[in-house]
Amino acid sequence: MFKNNLKLAWRNLLKHKSYSFINIFGLTLGVAAALFILQFVKHEQSYDLFHEKADRIYRLPISFYHQGELDYVDAMNYAPTGPALKDEMPEVEDFVRLSPVYDRVVMRRGNQYFEEEKIYFADSTLFNVFDFKLLEGDEKTCLTKPFSIVLTQSAAERYFGPQDSWRESPIGQTVKINNGRDWNISGIAADVPENSHLKFNALISFSTFFITRGDPSQSWGWNDFYTYVLLKEGTDEQTFADKLPAFLKSHSPDEDAGVYDQFLVQPLTDIHLKSNYSYEAEPNGDYKTVYFLSLIALAILFIAWVNYINLATARAEERAKEVGVRKVIGAGKKSLVFQFLTEAFIINSFAILMAVGVVQICQPIIPALVGKPLPSLFAEINWLIWLLPALLISGTVLSGLYPSFFLSAFSPVTILKGGTQRQNRGVWLRKGLVTFQYVVSILLIAGTFIVFKQLEYLQQVDLGFNLDKQLVLNAPSTIRKDSIFQERFKSFKNELLQFPEIKMVAGSSAIPGNNSTDLHTHGGLYLVGKDEKDAADYWILESDEDYVSSYQIKVIAGRNFAEAMGTDRDAILINQTAMRLLGINSPDQAIGKKLQYWDEQKNIVGVFKDYHHRSLRHRFEPMIIKNDVSGAKYYSVKFSSENKVDQLITKIEKTWNRIYPDNPFHHSFLDDRFNESYAADRQLGRIVGLFSILTILIACLGLFGLASYTVAVRTKEIGIRKVLGAPVGSIILMLTKGYFQLLVLAIVIGVPITFYVFSKWLENFAEAIALEYWIFILPSLLMLVIAFSAVGMQSLRAATGNPVEALRQE
């Protein structure tokens, strides 16, 4: 029977090529869109799952409280935490700490210099806790000895050439860091997988930290260390977490009720999607976006299946005689249902195969769309083994079951006597399905407008500083940060200022929009004369006297630093948020007060207006600017015109190479770096926009199908109305008003849903647009035009047709 049904289904598809093409094309688009989204969603959810012990690895961030309220959450922890937990808690099997190298790193191999990023000090237990693959070297010993370094394969190939050309292994060879001593290469690690929340190019033994940075082993206030614990099998996460307050209290007994911190227990696999703390190692994703895209994938699939239902029922009258004849010769309802399900099976099979091909063909453009490479669909064949059959079965059943029962229920006597099967069965289902298509389309169109309107707003909102015409240079790292460093900077700065195109040059430890790890957070700071219990945490930036002027940060009280470099060493500037945190009522009152800055006192000489140092996603942080250029990591060059910028950069590079011959010249434009903060939002906008177009296209096919059905079952009625003198306009109104009623219903349903969903998304920004009425009116009008285009053409053709043709069968 199945073989016979296949033959009948195949013949029917070939006989009605247009119908078959529309069905397969619509389903192909829907399945391809869903596969692409699911591919992205699966990748986002796969972060850190490649670690065999991922379900037992936890990171320990810290929540900082001030005056009893949460101030911020830091992804890092204290250096003694890991060792103390292993010693005192039997649940802890092992731990590992990583601390980023904040300074610029220039590696030298022979006469070649390479600037390297993403370097961490790491415990020797790293390869015991994590499953980062070591290609060469000993996992147990490669990070034990001081001045040992493990390179990734890509980093090693930068220094030694392609691996297949190595005459000897890099293991045991040396590199110089910042023109200092030789560092021994003790291991070569495989490149870190894309789906890791922690990425590195090199690892330095943690014992080196003690020699080069100081001893943090007894410091319960120095939180510069990502701390991970590996819990023993069978350990309950909550039980372990409940012990941490007492553990912390035993090591930090002096914390009072108003200012304190708490350890969090964060599963490793939650970090990428459910963590957006200060000092994250990498920009993270957002689980809300992943869920939203998953719903879009399901919605697009359902819309595609809805189209099949609409097109199948639209052809009901055409296939009625076929059903009647088959019933007369003995076909039962069950066999008819099976036949129509077989047709649905064939169409869905073709669509899925073509969709897989489309996704594979489009694989090269995916990184440009989502901002990262995604593994091929066939990279994990086990995923496809269950996904594709699931899509095939779901598509066959959901798209084919209703039309099968609908068509197989026709009465053969009525059909063969020339009667019609104009039935009201399922009319509410079809209306519901069309309304669903409208709602999803409105949601996606309005969502696209909102995302791009927010991104446009972010380009126009007052950031509190000026990022235009700002060239950023990475400061040299081969010079010790002392008076010689300052003198060379002064010489470099003076030479650049001789160029007429350059207005100002400033040195600073951080620049707006860069990674938050560039800003230090210092705790225990309070006003002289106040209670030490009022101490709080502040974000610290170090700069010279030209930083504030170069970025046009507004000083609202007091003054900027003195122009003579180094003459204002005890002076600080504070922002408005820091002023309020210090308990000062007005900017003028802050001038002249002294801040207890650990073991020294600093003079507040100015108050500057709050500005968005990180991005408009973040609130204003309490910020202090110190007058100190010795820790500068960046030189900001303010130029006057964008004409001939390339020539200006060439001149700057020549000056750089003369003054800093041992440091590679690396430059970027501040506006580009700052806008990288919104890369994920732009990607979301592109994805939502693309799938809005696909959804509308697929929905139009469904509307076309339903309009065909309406015209088919009312053909004779239209003919009679025309014979009786009905004008074309009234017939078009009769055929289309039902669809526009459904559109109004969809607007009533879709607008509140859209408002809720994107209000939640806008909460991620400190500055956000207002959701004005036009944002919802415009998508509604657009859907009105689209619906009229899809339905109106069918209605117009029916209304202007020859009534004789419509009545000839009577």
Protein described:
This protein is of the alpha+beta class and 810 residues long. 48% of the residues lie in helices and 17% in strands. It is built from 26 helices and 26 strands. The strands form four sheets. Strands 1, 4, 5, 6, 7, 8, 9, 10, 11, 12, 13 and 15 form a twelve-stranded mixed sheet that branches. The chain has a six-stranded mixed barrel with strand order 18-19-24-21-23-22. The mean pLDDT is 85.
Element layout with pairings:
Blueprint: H1 2-15, H2 17-45, E1 57-59, E2 62-66, E3 69-74, H3 81-88, E4 92-100, E5 105-109, E6 112-116, E7 119-122, H4 126-129, E8 134-136, E9 148-152, H5 153-160, E10 174-177, E11 182-189, E12 202-205, H6 206-212, E13 226-231, H7 237-251, E14 260-263, E15 266-267, H8 271-274, H9 287-314, H10 316-328, H11 333-361, H12 366-370, H13 381-408, H14 412-416, H15 427-460, E16 470-474, H16 483-496, E17 502-508, E18 520-527, E19 536-543, H17 547-550, E20 555-558, E21 571-575, H18 576-581, H19 587-590, E22 594-597, E23 600-608, E24 623-627, E25 634-639, H20 645-659, E26 667-669, H21 670-675, H22 679-713, H23 715-723, H24 728-762, H25 774-799, H26 803-807
Parallel strand pairs: 7-12, 9-11, 19-24, 21-23
Antiparallel strand pairs: 1-13, 1-15, 2-3, 2-14, 4-7, 4-13, 5-6, 5-10, 8-11, 9-12, 10-11, 16-25, 16-26, 17-25, 18-19, 18-22, 20-23, 21-24, 22-23
Helix pairs in contact: 1-11, 2-9, 2-11, 2-22, 9-13, 9-15, 9-22, 11-13, 15-22, 15-24, 15-25, 16-20, 22-23, 22-25, 24-25
List keywords for this structure.
48% helix, 12-stranded mixed β-sheet, alpha+beta, 26 helices, 26 strands
